[in-house]
Specification:
Elements (H helix, E strand, L loop, with lengths): L3 E4 L5 H8 L6 E8 L3 E2 L2 E10 L1 H19 L3 E7 L1 E4 L3 E9 L2 H18 L2 E7 L2 E4 L5
Helix pairs in contact: 2-3
Length: 138
Amino acid sequence: MKNIVITSEPLNSQLCIKSVADNGSGGLVVFIGNVRNKTKGKEVKYLDFEAYEPMALKEMQKIAREAIESWHLYDMAIHHRVGRVAIGEAAVVIACSSAHRKESFKACEFAIDTLKKTVPIWKKEVFEDGEVWVSAHP
């Protein structure tokens, strides 16, 4: 699938949106997961993501196919960053389009929830006084 991407480059949400746009879509939903500056009251300096790319891409494609079939989407894009991601930057962008908004909202939520559970992408939070891996899955 052309809309499934893992990259060390900054993510472009507009590119994701354009890649799923369809004249028949009445609902186009985009989820942007940004790096925030605090977690559990601690100041975060940045996040560092690592992935087992061959498996991660296959799992992301599987998520998109399941969402497209389950919610009758026109298309879905899932783009995820790897490497160092600064505060305020996007770590993940998911966009999808469907005839009606409800299906796109449900599919987008399914995609991010499933990605966090099943895709071999690991997140390290870096603080002034240390670091911690927080996504030890699958």
